[in-house]
Every structure is written in structure tokens, then in C-alpha cells.
Specification:
Elements (H helix, E strand, L loop, with lengths): L2 H12 L11 H12 L5 H13 L4 H17 L5 H4 L8 H11 L6 H11 L6 H14 L3 H14 L3 E3 L3 E6 L12 H10 L4 E5 L11 H7 L8 H9 L5 E5 H4 L1 H4 L2 H7 L4 H5 L6 E3 L2 E7 L4 H10 L7 E5 L14 E7 L2 E7 L20 H11 L6 H16 L6 H13 L2 H8 L1
Parallel strand pairs: 1-5, 2-3, 2-6, 3-4, 6-7
Antiparallel strand pairs: 7-8, 8-9
Helix pairs in contact: 1-2, 1-3, 2-4, 3-8, 6-8, 7-9, 8-15, 10-19, 10-21, 18-19, 19-20
Length: about 425
């Protein structure tokens, strides 16, 4: 294992956050000294773990190690990191430097500070290590509701967007880092919804930290389909009733944000960008837009609801505690669900038996699952309505349609979905893309 890989393991242990981080032993602190001095380890990763030590509580052993480091940092860390220890040092990004010092003191940032800081992050001349320190500082301080809202609103305004002359559009807003323990069946869900008249868009990127999981991009490549279709081509697919779905890559809808993938890899942890990028709506109907998303940790439930309520082009949403934090509800148990139409909120649970499906735990977590296996299961879901994969996808389609009140009769809609699969209609929507 390389020194960089070992440094990442220490960062995952120490730099997770104020409630989840675990302390380092004396031996691990000594190891860290070696990696901080090692030119083979990336500076952004070093900066990130140093931010964790500046901002998180220490054990006595860690405090002793860090005090020694503060006194000898010029001998132990790259010169690019000196500014963390000495505020008189000038850096290539003064605005980020000022914000980083405030974050180390656990102070919230104002809109007047956040605007220039975000602009600096999106500039390709800003050093990666400065962006990593800024984003890690925000995460360890814990972003305020105002800071989260700023990033969503500002990035939404920066992103490219295309409008569609269709009655409605469902946006499956899933985390861009994908699945790494379950099949990713979200493409099948989009195709199935489209096949019965509900145009659906998915967006993301090939992969991103921290999971680097199975994504829609990877599934399309495995299926010999183009994940980088031009925006105009995606628009045509969404407006074509014989297709009705599409995938938009972040490299097309927001190149500057996509360019930060390397920084996010080097800092390892999930920054605020991961929280808001899935809500940037690269395509909009000129009539109605609905968003379907998910969460993992209960703490994100209220935060995400507040964020979704700030979206001006969202006529309703469904928000579940889905598989691996995705919008895909589990088949083996009920899960919390929040939905909103206009100004009316509903909080409750979604359960397979509500729609006539038995709870099944056949899909046990498998950390060895491959993209090829996920693709096979996805295609099975679109061709055999009696398969477990299809039942899982049909259940999620019904949950969305019912929560957004897109159908008056769920029994009839369920039969529509089954008939679409059995007749080959759903699979034809997949093939034509």
C-alpha cells in the first residue's frame, strides 16, 4: 500500500466529522508525521487532515503530537501548508485564506464572504489544496442552513440549463458517487416511468469521492450507450414519447463544478458540493417539475427539506431514506418519506405492502457487486415483471406517482407498469436511447 493510501486511511479515521471521527493512536500520529513529510503524498490530502486537527477535539496523545507539530511545522509539512500555522503568510487565494481562518474558529461565513470564495473554488487557477481546506473546514464546522442555501442558490445560477416543452418532468436527484453495495436500478426506474408517460431525467458523473460507486454513467457505458450525449440530443430524447428519458453528465451541465472531481478525490470526504449538486436541475419543463431524492443520515432530513423548499422551479418533491442514501426505497422494510405539493407537506412512511408487494430481503448488501451485474439486473427489471428486480422498480415507480398525485388510480397504474414491461414497451424505451 502506498504512503498516499495509508494517509487516506488516517484521514478517513480522523477527518470524518465532529461526531463520527475516531482518535489516532500514538503510533498513528507518528505515521502521520512521516506522511506529512513524504513528497509522494498529495498536498490537498495533507491540508485536509491538518484541518481536522485544527478543528476537532483531541485526545491527550493527539494534543501532545499536534503541539509538537505546531512548533516544528516548517520541518514536517510542505510549505504550501505553512499558512495554516502562520496567518502572516500570503497564499495564492487571499479570500479562501480568510474564510479558512474563520472556519478554523468555527465561525459561520456571510454571503459577502461566500460569494467570492465559491468563485475562487470554480476558477481553475486556484490551488487544489486551498479549495480542499475551505471545503473541509465548512464540513467540520457543519454548514449552517444559510450556507447550504447559498451554495444551492449560487450553483443553481451558475449551472447550464435547458428547457423542454413537455407537460412535466421528473428529476431523479441521486448522489453522484453511486452505489457500492446494491444494484443501481435508477435507470430502470427512469425508463419505466417514461414508458407510461412520465418523462424522467437522471444526472451525475462517471464517479466521484468518496464511494466511486456504480453510477448511471458507468451503466450506460457498459450497455454501449453514450453517457455524454450533447444537451440537444438529450432534449430530443426527453421530448420523444418513444424514449422519454435521458441522462445528463455534469461535465456538460456544469464543467467548472465537474473540474473539482480531482480535488474531491484528494480531500477524500464528502463536501457541501455533494449535498447540493444533485439539485441543480439541468433540464426543466416549462410547465411542471418534480424532484425525487433521498438521504442517509437522519440529520440530513430537515436540512434537505429546507434546501428543497428554496428551489423556485420545483412543483413538488418526494424525499425518502432510500438504499445507500439514494431516492430508491428499500424492498425489505418501510422507510421514512416526505412529500410536498404546492405548500402542502406530508410526512410518513413508504412500505412495499402499501402497493401490494411483500417485503423481501433478497437483496443483501454485497460490497463486491459489479457494474455488469447491476446492468443485468436493471435489464431484467425492464423485461420480466415477475422478477424481484422488476417488483422493486415497480414499487418505487408507484411510490413516486402516488406521492406526487400523478395518478387517480394506483391499481390501474400498477397494471400499466406491469403491462409496459410484459409487452416489451419499457425495454423498447431503453433500447431507443
Amino acid at each position: 500500500m502506498s504512503a498516499q493510501a495509508k494517509l487516506i486511511l488516517l484521514l478517513k479515521q480522523k477527518g470524518t466529522g465532529k461526531t463520527m471521527s475516531k482518535s489516532l493512536t500514538v503510533a498513528q500520529c507518528d505515521e502521520l508525521t512521516t506522511y506529512l513529510h513524504d513528497p509522494g503524498c498529495l498536498i490537498a490530502t495533507k491540508t485536509t487532515i491538518l484541518m481536522a486537527f485544527f478543528m476537532l477535539e483531541h485526545t491527550d496523545d493527539e494534543a501532545s503530537w499536534f503541539t509538537k507539530l505546531e512548533n516544528t511545522y516548517k520541518e514536517c509539512v510542505p510549505k504550501e501548508c505553512f499558512f495554516l500555522f502562520d496567518p502572516t503568510i500570503h497564499t495564492p487565494s487571499p479570500i479562501l485564506q480568510t474564510c479558512i481562518y474563520k472556519l478554523i474558529r468555527h465561525q459561520h461565513l456571510s454571503y459577502d464572504e461566500l460569494g467570492p470564495a465559491l468563485s475562487a473554488c470554480l476558477e481553475n487557477t486556484t490551488p487544489t489544496y486551498m479549495i480542499a481546506a475551505f471545503l473541509e473546514g465548512l464540513r467540520l464546522k457543519e454548514e449552517s442552513a444559510e450556507e447550504n442555501a447559498f451554495f444551492l442558490t449560487s450553483l443553481w445560477q451558475h449551472a447550464k440549463r435547458s428547457t423542454l416543452e413537455i407537460p412535466l418532468l421528473i428529476d431523479i436527484a441521486t448522489a453522484y458517487d453511486g452505489f457500492n453495495r446494491h444494484p443501481n436500478l435508477l435507470l430502470a426506474l427512469a425508463v419505466l416511468l417514461a414508458s407510461i408517460g412520465f418523462p424522467t431525467i437522471i444526472h451525475g458523473c462517471k464517479d466521484v469521492s468518496p464511494k466511486f460507486g456504480i453510477t448511471a454513467h458507468k451503466l450506460l457505458v457498459a450497455a454501449n450507450k453514450d453517457p455524454l450525449k450533447p444537451i440537444d440530443s438529450i432534449r430530443q430524447c426527453l421530448q420523444d414519447r418513444s424514449i422519454g428519458w435521458g441522462y445528463c453528465d455534469q461535465s456538460l451541465s456544469f464543467p467548472a463544478l465537474h473540474a473539482l472531481r480531482e480535488c474531491r478525490t484528494e480531500m477524500v470526504k464528502r463536501p457541501v458540493l455533494a449535498t447540493v449538486e444533485k439539485f441543480l436541475q439541468p433540464f426543466l419543463s416549462t410547465h411542471q417539475n418534480f424532484l425525487v431524492t433521498g438521504y442517509t443520515h437522519p440529520a440530513y432530513r430537515s436540512k434537505t427539506s429546507l434546501l428543497l423548499d428554496t428551489l423556485s422551479h420545483c412543483d413538488g418533491y418526494v424525499f425518502v431514506r432510500g438504499v445507500e442514501g439514494s431516492p430508491f426505497a428499500p424492498l425489505d422494510r418501510r422507510c421514512p418519506l416526505i412529500s410536498k405539493l404546492a405548500t402542502k407537506n406530508h410526512e410518513g412512511f413508504s412500505s412495499p405492502d402499501t402497493f401490494g408487494f411483500s417485503k423481501r430481503d433478497d437483496f443483501t448488501p454485497d460490497t463486491g457487486i459489479t457494474t455488469a451485474q447491476s446492468l443485468t439486473m436493471m435489464q431484467t427489471a425492464l423485461q420480466d415483471s415477475r422478477s424481484l428486480e422488476a417488483q422493486w422498480v415497480i414499487y418505487n415507480a408507484l411510490m413516486i406517482i402516488h406521492s406526487l398525485k400523478l395518478s387517480d388510480t394506483i391499481t390501474r397504474t400498477k397494471q400499466q407498469l406491469i403491462d409496459s414491461i410484459d409487452s416489451g414497451l419499457a425495454f423498447s424505451h431503453w433500447i431507443r436511447y
